[in-house]
Design goal:
alpha+beta, 434 Repressor (Amino-terminal Domain), Cyanate Lyase, Chain: A, domain 2, globular, about 150 residues, 2 domains, about 50% helix
């Protein structure tokens, strides 16, 4: 469903590598957060024209490619079944192990509903540790109660 966006993402990744750009530098140029900018350039978010124009200039993209960055994507970048990439699999594993815990604790605190992935923010940072640096991920989304009708 995302063939054109997938192809553009591959092109962007190649240019990123060739130019030795970091996602933080790209995000600063685009004017959005690194998490959101990365998701958009990998085809999972739609950019607004001013952000797409900045990305297009940075990557040397055509007008059509800049327009493609603004199109609403078909979201969901992973194939069905468990992911095979070890880093992505660990997130899958977290949900397998802690998913029911997340669900219980969120429902106990907020009631019957979900955490939005639309009205959502995420950030991460490196935490130095003598036994090996740690990854800290913070996610927060609007609580959406299920509607009774």
């Amino acid at each position: 469903m995302n063939e054109a966006k997938d192809a553009l993402a591959e092109k962007i990744l190649k240019i990123k590598k060739k130019k030795k750009l970091s996602w933080a530098k790209i995000a600063a140029t685009v004017g959005m957060s690194p998490v959101w900018t990365t998701a958009a350039l990998l085809g999972q978010m739609s950019m607004q024209p001013p952000h797409a124009a900045k990305a297009a200039k940075l990557f040397g993209l055509s007008k059509d490619e800049a327009d493609l960055l603004c199109e609403i994507p078909y979201r969901g970048s992973l194939p069905p079944g468990p992911p095979t990439d070890p880093l992505i699999y660990r997130f899958y594993e977290l949900v397998q192990v802690y998913g029911t815990t997340f669900k219980e604790l969120i429902e106990e605190e907020f009631g019957d509903g979900i955490m939005s992935a639309i009205d959502f923010e995420m950030g991460f940072e490196r935490l130095p540790d003598p036994k090996g640096d740690r990854v800290k991920i913070v996610m927060h989304g609007k609580f959406l109660p299920y509607r009774r009708y």
